Q: What sequence folds into this?
């Protein structure tokens, strides 16, 4: 890989070099199919040993919808970070708004949430994305969200 080549995939080590989230709030395991500044696909492997399942809900574990949206946002942040070469630059990302959010299917332990994120507007500090999360090809959630990227100086 040359210095000008942007990776098309981010494993967990690269993800952690781009976004500051850590257990228990790092909610994306892999990002693939990265098209710089345009789109990416995030993977979240949902497992029963995650802390949210002790209370949501013990007898019927359901991955919380807000965490699905957060996982989609983390996928978007990784795509932007990879696209702009922001590894090890301490980029921070802040939600500004969530629109058109709908949940269509429960997500639980054993599911693999596949999140497709597309840039609607971006390039500066404020970005807007459209995202879909699917399990086994079935729509689980969809949303549009905006975020402010706090890019490092220098």
A:
């Amino acid at each position: 890989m040359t210095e000008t080549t942007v990776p098309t995939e981010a494993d967990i080590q690269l993800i952690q070099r781009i976004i500051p989230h850590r257990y228990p709030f790092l909610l994306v395991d892999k990002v693939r199919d990265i098209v710089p500044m345009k789109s990416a696909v995030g993977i979240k492997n949902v497992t029963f040993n995650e802390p949210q399942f002790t209370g949501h809900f013990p007898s019927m574990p359901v991955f919380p919808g807000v965490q699905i949206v957060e996982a989609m946002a983390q996928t978007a942040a990784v795509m932007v970070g990879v696209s702009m070469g922001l590894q090890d630059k301490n980029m921070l990302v802040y939600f500004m708004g969530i629109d058109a959010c709908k949940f269509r299917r429960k997500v639980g332990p054993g599911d693999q949430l596949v999140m497709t994120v597309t840039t609607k507007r971006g390039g500066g500090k404020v970005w807007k994305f459209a995202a879909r999360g699917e399990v086994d090809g079935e729509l689980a959630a969809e949303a549009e969200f905006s975020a402010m990227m706090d890019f490092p100086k220098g």
Observations:
- Strands lie at 30-35, 39-45, 92-103, 112-121, 126-135, 138-150.
